[in-house]
Amino acid sequence: MRANYRMQRLFVPHDLAAGTELEADPQQSHYLTNVLRLADGAEVLLFNGRDGEWSAAIAGRTKKAVRLTVLVEQRPQPPLPDLVYCFAPLKQGRLDYLVQKAVEMGAGVLQPVATQHTQVAKPGIERLRANVVEAAEQCGILAVPQVRESEKLDRLLAGWDAGRRLIFCDEDASTNNPLPALKALTEKKLGLLVGPEGGFSDDERRMLRALPFVTAIPLGPRILRADTAAVAALAVIQATAGDW
Ligand code: SAH
Known about the structure:
alpha/beta; CATH 2.40.240.20; seven-stranded parallel sheet; five-stranded mixed sheet; binds S-adenosyl-L-homocysteine; cytoplasm; RsmE; transferase; methyltransferase activity; Ribosomal RNA small subunit methyltransferase E
């Protein structure tokens, strides 16, 4: 069922069930009171990534916090998409964009990867999580992706579940069209790997192409910026082997 876009949607950490009383956090409370100017009795939508989406009514407020009473479940909790999105972190602005697009495009897990040319080896995980929540709130996404700690590429590959097909976006691929390789995939458990601004090193490319669970794909005849490549790859993967 498509999400309701008329009502304000807030991510909360609390468990959600009919009759639960909870307080919005200070930032959310400010937004509800001073920006949206919602009166007592007004309704919003709440989700926590576990219990689906619930309507809730404003049940009063103190100076610091708006109190909410949970009412009715609006949408059940969907499963997390089984797509692990591995990416070399980019500089802040582009990283914010890349994380939000990955959430919108249906990634289930966000896995930062430190590669040889990665410029930001350890991105701020709280900022990544904040971008995930923002994208989920804006797009009505209830299956909120997990953000994992950054890993070095070789360690990630050494610990990779061989039952999960890793689709490697290879800017050095000799063909242009990803569809033949993607249509040949049979696995439902998928991973995607997109490199950094400087691309993958030759050693990394050789290592990746030698692995049995890796499928290298091209993304057209032109080199894309890393954040463009992420969206392009997610689109063709979701359309051929994912949940579109
Ligand atoms: N220097 C540019 C692009 C670097 S390539 C920049 O500033 O972003 C960034 C990553 O995007 C690559 O490692 C690869 O994973 C992916 N990519 C970009 N163009 C691609 C293509 N034509 N085919 C496959 N992957 C591509």
